[in-house]
Every structure is written in structure tokens, then in C-alpha cells.
Design brief:
alpha/beta, Rossmann fold, 7-stranded parallel beta sheet, two-stranded parallel sheet, 9 helices, 9 strands
């Protein structure tokens, strides 16, 4: 019997895969979404080996032309969705002055408009069901700007504005939002980042290699979701930057000028 259904975007690798494996257990149905079908199938097999029911729903966040259709397909899997984890996204490794508007729009489409399209299409189902929860993967750069991340930071800042507003508007409907701000997590996000011209960066950042393991990050996220936290920050010593930015903005600016954004 299915007790809980969780829909995860960006589930083919990194934090999304780690979350799927964390939640995978008897009584849980997982709807796994990303572009790469073969990788989704791999993750689904791992999840089912742990006793979960796994459904594959491929999608491209850069091209959500029929969000209601996707929601209907997801709902048909088990008849309900309890949590949507908006995890899919793409990062950037380029100066603002060099980045084409086409690339800026692509980053916004994947990181913001795609998430909003799915969430707004699912929202009426949450209201009808008497509640539901959106978990939204932001970033430390959803809290401050950083070199070589202009469009990426903008997309993550936008998520905060939209989903905080949505949470306030739908509090009476028992619709909850958990905004999640990871720092350096050991995933392939830098490898898949895009350059100023839209090409793939293809390099593993040194900081990424030294980051928190994805499964440890997933465990923290799952706990925050269970407690219906409004916002959490996850990281190692890099969390210090958040506090410096908040309480000593001038000092943060000086530090940011000295940091290499590609490390």
C-alpha cells in the first residue's frame, strides 16, 4: 500500500538521486523526473530494490510546454502527490559581461520558470487534497550574489520571492514550502554548468570535490521537509559566508572579491 508519493525533479544524479535513495522504502512511491531516461531507469531500479515503488516521468525543465499534462500523468501514478521536490537545475560559469541573453534566459527557464510551471499546475491538486508540500532547491547564491554566477544567482533569488509568496497565500490551505539552500555539495553540478555561449563547462570545481557528500545533504533535507521548515542552509565551513553577508555585508564584499569562483 502506498502511504506517501514524492515527485523529484533532477532525480537522475546528485542531490536528486540521493533524495530518491533516501526516501526509497516500502510504502513510498517515487516519481522520478529528469531528461536522461537511462539514468532515471538506473535510479528507479535502485529505489525499487529498497522496497519503494518508482515511476519514471522524463521532462525537460527548459521546455515545460504542458505542465498540467505532466501533473496529470504524475497524479495518475498513484492518485496523489504529497511532496514535490523542485531539485532540477543548471549552474553557470561565466562573467555577466560575456553571457548572452540566450544563456541567461535558458538558466532562468530551467531554474525558475520550469519549477514554477510544475508547481503552479500542481497547486490546485494540493488545495483540493487539503494540503501538500513544495521543497525547493535554492543555493547559497539564492541569498547573495557571486562572481561567474550572475544568472544562476538571479534564478535562485527569484525562487525565494515566488515560493515565499506562494506559502503565505496558501497557508490556510495547508500548503507548505521548504526552501533549501545548499553550499558546496559533492555532485557534478560544476561539470554540467554552462559557459557564456551555452557550451558545457565540463570541469569539476575544487570546492565541489571537497563539499558535503550528497547522501548526507539528502538526509538533512529530508529532515527539514518532515519538520516543514520554511528555510534551511546546508554546508560545511562555507556556511560562514551566509552569516558574514547578513551581518557584515562590507566584509563579505571584500572576501568575495578575493575568492576564485572557479574553485
Amino acid at each position: 500500500m502506498i502511504h506517501k508519493t514524492i515527485w523529484i525533479t533532477g532525480a537522475s544524479s546528485g542531490i536528486g538521486e540521493a533524495l530518491a535513495l533516501h526516501y526509497a522504502q516500502p510504502g513510498v512511491a517515487l516519481i522520478l523526473s529528469a531528461r536522461r531516461f537511462d539514468e532515471l531507469k538506473r535510479v528507479a531500479t535502485l529505489c525499487e530494490a529498497k522496497g519503494a515503488k518508482a515511476f519514471i516521468l522524463p521532462l525537460d525543465l527548459a521546455d515545460i510546454s504542458n505542465p498540467k499534462g505532466l501533473v496529470n500523468t504524475a497524479m495518475a501514478c498513484t492518485g496523489k502527490i504529497d511532496i514535490l521536490i523542485n531539485n532540477g537545475g543548471v549552474s553557470q560559469r561565466a562573467l555577466a559581461a560575456d553571457t548572452s541573453m540566450e544563456v541567461v534566459r535558458k538558466i532562468m527557464e530551467v531554474n525558475f520558470f520550469g519549477q514554477v510551471a510544475l508547481s503552479s499546475a500542481l497547486l490546485p491538486e494540493f488545495i483540493k487534497a487539503g494540503g501538500g508540500q513544495f521543497a525547493v532547491l535554492s543555493s547559497f547564491t539564492g541569498k547573495f550574489g557571486f562572481a561567474w554566477r550572475s544568472a544562476y544567482a538571479a534564478s535562485k533569488h527569484a525562487l525565494h520571492g515566488y515560493f515565499e509568496s506562494l506559502a503565505i497565500e496558501n497557508h490556510a490551505h495547508h500548503v507548505h514550502v521548504t526552501l533549501i539552500c545548499p553550499g558546496r555539495i559533492k555532485t557534478n553540478i560544476s561539470l554540467h554548468s554552462i559557459n557564456a555561449d551555452g557550451s558545457v563547462y565540463g570541469k569539476m570545481d575544487e570546492g565541489q570535490l571537497k563539499g558535503m557528500e550528497a547522501d548526507a545533504c539528502a538526509a538533512i533535507i529530508a529532515k527539514a521537509i518532515a519538520r516543514k521548515k520554511r528555510e534551511i542552509s546546508i554546508g560545511k565551513t562555507d556556511k560562514l559566508l551566509l552569516h558574514i553577508h547578513r551581518f557584515f555585508p562590507a566584509l563579505f564584499f571584500k572576501i568575495a572579491l578575493k575568492l576564485d569562483p572557479r574553485k
